[in-house]
Amino acid sequence: RETGTSKLVILSAAEAKQSKRSKLLGLLGMGAGDAFSAVEFAQECLPDSFGGLCPSPDGRTLYFLGAAPDVPGGLYSWAVPPDGATEAPDKAEMIACSMSKDMQIDPAFVSRPKLLKFPTAGGEHAYGYYYPPENPNFEGADAERPPLLVKAHGGPTACTRVSLNPGIQYWTSRGFAVLDVDYRGSTGYGRKYRERLKGNWGIVDIEDVCAGAQHLVGRGLADAKRLAIDGGSAGGYTTLGALTFKDVFTAGCSLYGVADLAALAGDTHKFESRYLDGLVGRYPEESAVYDARAPIKHTDRLSCPILLLQGAEDKIVPPNQAELMYEAVKAQGIPCCLKVYAGEQHGFRRSENIEDALDSELAFYARVFGFRVAGGGTALRITNLDDKDAEPDGAREGGAEGHGDIRSLLLA
Q: Whole-angstrom Cα distance, residue 400 to residue 363?
């Protein structure tokens, strides 16, 4: 990125993400005859996850956003080493934190991720971060494998973040293993890997989340009968597609996810109005491809329970996507639940709704997988399971009383 004078900041994100041994950061002079000047330094000098590089006007300080599995995200500053430096610079300093100082998490309850490279379709490989269950107050039975929650990130051309994520620690502190998948098409692994999603959205991403779950089952790290998947937005589409077109998962939760690609192409906001051309194909010229990959067009192939969580004011993936999917799944006699949150848009913002969404998803899996939530958990009415004539929960003004304390284990 230009510093405003004559230099670029070079960041080797893919190498750092894959090797986990070192990171490469350098300055590239733009003047005649200038050579590439870089410094390679140890893991402890920078947080595990960083981006948003912004040099100071004089080029002597680099500001960036960083985080680590046990450290919340924040704004960092780093003194740029002089030209020709070969030794590690001083450790980067956090100057602002994104997480409330009132939120204190005991390190003993924090699950730390392990980067996995696993085989997937076509003889290729995909990546993901595996978080084992972590709660020092409880242990599972010796012969029991934990339930697994596979997470599909949004974008879809985005990536996972190796940072302290309460939304992941919520699950690992409650007895779940979590696999946060960087399916083919994710950024951070090179251009070739990222471009695997071109024309293949709804194919390679689904193959990879399924392959990741099966990989962990094969290693004895997950219970094959208790495999769940969730994702928001584009990740919700991958979730619905995996549940519809594959037989790997036994339950799932789509948060403001895409169910009908053709409807998305016609309804979404202007900024992303042609985004699907490169991911699926030009519309309407290739409408047959859109229909072939739309979960809502193939609910006859669906056989496992689905929870749908949606913001009532979402302009990117309108609520009618979740509503149409709910009605289609309901008509198939499959257990399902739709919760619509008033005042929420594309991604939940209110703390009470974020908490309620997590508690509702846990309650849903508890019913489906057959375990008990300590303290009773959140009340959840599931159509085709509790009452065949039930209607979806109405729009919510706020969240319900739940169990948001990350240090409490709800599996009992």
A: 12
pLDDT of residue 240: 97
Rounded-to-integer distance, Cα 46 and Cα 324, Å: 46
Question: Are the C-beta atoms of 43 and 20 separated by less than 8 Å?
Answer: yes
Give the pLDDT confidence of 266-298 residue by residue, as tens digits: 765 554 557 788 888 888 888 899 999 999 999
Number of Cβ within 10 Å of residue 129's Cβ equals 21
Strands 336-341 and 22-29: unpaired
Assign residue 387 a region: left if phi > 0, alpha if psi is -120 to 50, beta otherwise?
Answer: beta
Tens-digit pLDDT profile for residues 173-226 = 999 999 999 999 998 888 999 999 999 999 999 999 999 999 999 999 999 999
Q: Report the C-alpha gap between 71 and 258 in whole angstroms.
A: 32
User: Which region, left, alpha or beta, applies to residue 275 given φ > 0 means left and ψ of -120 to 50 means alpha?
Assistant: alpha
Distance between CA atoms of 162 and 71, rounded to whole angstroms?
A: 10
3-state class (DSSP) for residue 254? strand
How far, in Å, are 19, 118, 221 from residue 215 at the CA level? 20, 7, 9
CATH topology (fold) of 107-396: Rossmann fold (3.40.50)
The whole-angstrom separation of Cα 333 and Cα 201 is 28
Asked whether the beta carbons of 294 and 328 are under 8 A apart, the reply is no
> Is the bond preceding 284 in cis, omega lying within 30 degrees of 0?
yes
Query: Higher pLDDT residue, 249 or 28?
Result: 249
Rg, the chain, Cα only: 22
Distance, CA of 133 to CA of 147 (rounded, Å): 9
Q: Taking Cα atoms as reference points, which of 269, 271, 239 lies closest to residue 154?
A: 239
Domain ranges within the chain, ordered by starting residue: 7-97, 107-396
Q: With beta carbons less than 8 A apart as the criterion, state whether 182 and 126 touch.
A: yes
Residue that is written with structure tokens 């491809």 in the block? 289
Quote the CA–CA distance of 184 and 201 in Å, as a whole number.
9
- The three-state DSSP-derived secondary structure of 129-149 is EEECCCCCCCCCCCCCCCCEE
